[in-house]
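Sorry to interrupt, but I need a hand with the structure work. I would like you to pick a protein and set down its sequence and fold. Please put the record directly below this note.
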Amino acid sequence: MLRRRNRNALLKKIGFIALVLLLLWLIGRTIPYLFLADAPDEAAALAEEFYKYEQTGDFGSSWELFHPLMKERFPKSAYLQSRAHIFMQHFGVETFDLEMEKPEREFDVTVIDGVKPFAEAYRIGVTQKFTGTFGQFKIVQDCYIVKDGDDWTLLWYYPKNGDNETEHDKTD
């Protein structure tokens, strides 16, 4: 009789330890996803901030939110001059309306041809609606939000070989 009680107590202890280990394992697997839950919102906030600066003509502040690859492609002074010249002087635009799609998480994304793919990125479709000297027009563009160290940064999509469709466009 004494052995049976010891055996039952031992089995209860082993069961309890196994349950605790299972719970710890589940918690350990879940915690990283809790931090990723904000990532789409953070990506959308960065894109919105970028285009709000663009709307007000603050191209210097928007340039600061670019990924280093974009900053390399557009030196700050050239970007400031080109954006202001094209939109404000040529098209006579004072401001524009903005529509942004919900961020879509993508993996192994080639944003710029010839550059190593990003392991993870958020693609956001952006539509800018302008009214200017030549009437109303829209620019529809995909931007990608990626982490550069601890900071979210923005890139524009540059297709390879002049292909002007993203994977998203092909599935629509």
About this structure: The two ends are 72 Å apart (CA to CA). The chain has two domains: 1-37, 38-171.
